[in-house]
């Protein structure tokens, strides 16, 4: 049950959390390991600070953005998988997208992340 809660914090505390990269990094240090690796299409991030910067960059693209868990999270050993939906608005336009997360845990924090996402 602990990794399911960590995934919920991943969505709520980070992706739905503050927009400020410094505040996000503070939260990220409690959710991911110091040597965290995140694999986005086209680039990787390393450590809580780079993760926070990537999340802040995503948030900057929208006036408002919110994520919700649609499926899972499912836990199998050290791996966690979940499906989420996101809704962002910018200049009065709404953008909807969905994604699938796969995370590898080390203890009670995430050490590695793979993302697949697309816009609806």
UniProtKB/TrEMBL annotation:
Q: Short name of one Pfam family for this protein? A: SnoaL_2
Tell me which residues make up the SnoaL-like domain. 8-113
Q: What InterPro entries does its record include?
A: NTF2-like_dom_sf (IPR032710), SnoaL-like (IPR037401)
Name used for this protein in its record: Nuclear transport factor 2 family protein
Which lineage is the organism of this entry classified under, starting from the top rank? Bacteria, Bacillati, Actinomycetota, Actinomycetes, Mycobacteriales
